[in-house]
Write a structure and sequence with these properties.
single chain; alpha+beta; D-amino Acid Aminotransferase, Chain A, domain 1; eight-stranded mixed beta sheet
Length: 317
């Protein structure tokens, strides 16, 4: 780390010093309307002095899917993007929990607005520290937003598109102005969709239930991991089906999951107490298992981790 930013970033096929990666001011605005990105996390293991990136390939696969849907040309392969990210983390000497953000945008799109915005691909990968909140004990009080979730016929939530995030921002801003920690959004059909930046899960009558990927959600990689861990390691039956708002009020446990939110318990919704009002049993067990998986302290699900090789750099150097 040099000063308040990492030493390097990756831009258009080349790793370069952070300060050298600049664009002309006229590139602002339309270049990011169609931009798509990924949010990926690396977790530091103090004992093994190693950083583990969680499900790196799945994130890069989803980035390529997003690029296809917004018609940005895939000029780099998944393997090239993986290699670029790992080299960047090593060269930035990332010895702490770290966020990795690849972004694909249409460069030089000033004045193009509605046409030809995908003509020239710009692509960036940057990293910054992001400590885990998994053992912070935080629990959210949320409200069901008066805003509706975007849908596949309007702004497809399956695409991790920068523009889509305006919808979640409106819901978050409203929730915070009203004194809540966060929001939940309903689909245009009135079913529970997701939270800004995270998927929603509830435990009710011994099942883990979560909305299907056709109810206006991002195809979340954490959601997939949580469903797998709940089924295999907690023995909880997992059901993907539409959820009514009032079912959430009656749930035993509710939590949010996603790369940034990790597993965040929800203890109150619209001022209804969820379950006991404390972090639920299944939620707590999933949080602990997930943290061990992320940090390389758990043998199960080892294939979800990519060791960066920071330790090897030290040994060699
Ligand atoms: N929904 C939205 C809108 C998100 O931005 C995110 C975070 N990427 C998620 C869900 C969770 O997805 P993931 O588990 O892949 O991070």
């Amino acid at each position: 780390m040099a000063g308040s930013h990492p030493t390097y970033l990756w831009w258009n096929g080349r790793q370069m010093p952070w300060e050298e990666a600049t664009v002309h001011v006229t590139d602002l605005a339309w270049s990011t309307v169609g931009a798509v990105f990924e949010g990926i996390r690396g977790y530091w293991n103090e004992d093994s002095q190693e950083l583990y990136v969680f499900r790196l390939r799945e994130h890069m696969d989803r980035l390529i899917d997003s690029m296809k849907l917004v018609r940005l040309p895939a000029e780099y392969s998944v393997d090239e993007l993986i290699d670029a990210s790992l080299t960047l983390l090593r060269d930035n000497d990332a010895r702490e929990d770290t966020y990795i953000r690849p972004l694909a945008y249409s460069a030089g799109s000033s004045g193009k607005r509605l046409s030809d915005t995908a003509a020239s691909l710009g692509m960036l990968i940057n990293t910054n520290p992001m400590p885990s909140q998994l053992d912070s004990g935080r629990a959210f009080k949320v409200k069901v937003s008066s805003w509706t979730r975007i849908s596949d016929t309007v702004m497809p939530p399956r695409i991790k598109n920068i523009s889509n995030y305006r919808n979640g921002q409106l819901a978050s801003m409203e929730a915070q102005a009203d004194g809540y920690d966060g929001a939940l959004l309903l689909s245009p059909q009135g079913k529970v969709s997701e939270a800004p930046g995270a998927c929603v899960m509830m435990v009710r009558k011994g099942q883990l239930i979560t909305p299907p990927t056709t109810d206006g959600i991002l195809e979340s990689i954490t959601r997939d991991a949580v469903m797998t861990m709940a089924r295999e390691s907690l023995g909880l039956p997992v059901v993907e089906r539409s959820i009514d708002r009032t079912e959430l009020y009656l749930a035993d446990e509710v939590f949010l999951c996603g790369t940034a939110f990790e597993i965040t318990p929800v203890v109150e919704i619209d001022r209804y107490t969820v379950g006991s009002g404390e972090i639920g049993e299944a939620t707590g067990r999933l949080q602990r298992l997930y943290e061990d998986v992320l940090r390389g302290k758990e043998e199960r699900y080892a294939s979800w981790r990519t060791p960066v090789g920071v330790a090897a750099t030290v040994a060699a150097g």
